[in-house]
Amino acid sequence: MNILITGATSGIGKQLTLDYAAAGHHVVACGRNQQALDELQNIDSNHIAGQQLDISQADETVQALRSFTDLDVVILAAGVCEYLDIDNFEADLFARVFEVNVVGTMRCVEALLPNLKAGAKLVIVGSTARLLPFTRAEAYGGSKAAIHYITRSLQVDLAQRGIKVLHVSPGFVETPMTAQNDFEMPMQVSVDFASQAIRKGIEKNKIDITFPRMFGWFLKLASRLPQSWQVALSRRMT
Ligand SMILES: NC(=O)c1ccc[n+]([C@@H]2O[C@H](COP(=O)([O-])OP(=O)(O)OC[C@H]3O[C@@H](n4cnc5c(N)ncnc54)[C@H](OP(=O)(O)O)[C@@H]3O)[C@@H](O)[C@H]2O)c1
């Protein structure tokens, strides 16, 4: 298969890149960090090609991605996380997070969609953070809630073109992104676990790939509680 992955220079995207390449697939690995892209290419230049890309830059993104015409799977995993300090409320923090997680991700869709053929899979990485109003996660959780809604609408609108749109909701995964967290992360899994769960879900065309399963079930159940209970639950976790 020909696979394009954003966020391939680190964490979940990097593991997916290595695992797909090891299985003999051809991967276009995207990210800003040229050194990390070179390292990936050096590991397996037959199967991994680096593409430097900053998805917060509109022209650069469209120009870089327009030329990929024969993709079977696109995994949009690039993302950032910043937590809000409620005592120093900063609207620009929302702009930074949404610029990458929402607008940047949609720039990738804009660039790649014209060349996606029937049967192709478009995989968008959200987060289980969208399921409850977690403390300090106004921007991050909000961006992932937006991505979840957008993905479901794309599932409707791209069905007629035969393009499968899959949404990924990871729980806590051990990556550089979560290394900054100073709180307990229940049921945290490794990048190997995450990569396996995502690859299995993609193979099975699961439109909702949530892992780890128990953590996902708990949060999905909690998200159906009355809103006041959800707030109380999240306050207890603070
Ligand atoms: N780790 C978790 O527990 C967890 C849980 C739920 C959801 N997720 C989601 O999973 C995805 C991957 O997260 P991760 O934990 O693997 O994070 P990570 O290790 O911090 O990796 C983030 C990736 O995003 C790329 N990126 C960030 N800004 C970019 C930009 N402007 N342009 C292009 N690429 C950019 C980074 O590449 P460069 O720095 O090279 O640009 C990097 O490859 C994210 O969407 C995240 O929200 C993670």
From TrEMBL:
PROSITE patterns in the cross-refs: ADH_SHORT
A Pfam short name: adh_short
Superkingdom of origin organism: Bacteria
Keywords: Oxidoreductase
Keyword Transmembrane helix among UniProt keywords: no
InterPro entries for this protein: NAD(P)-bd_dom_sf, Sc_DH/Rdtase_CS, SDR_fam
SUPFAM superfamilies for this protein: NAD(P)-binding Rossmann-fold domains
Gene Ontology, cellular component aspect: membrane
GO molecular function: oxidoreductase activity
Record has Oxidoreductase as a keyword: yes
Family, as annotated: Belongs to the short-chain dehydrogenases/reductases (SDR) family.
Name recorded for this polypeptide: Short-chain dehydrogenase
Native source species: Pseudidiomarina homiensis
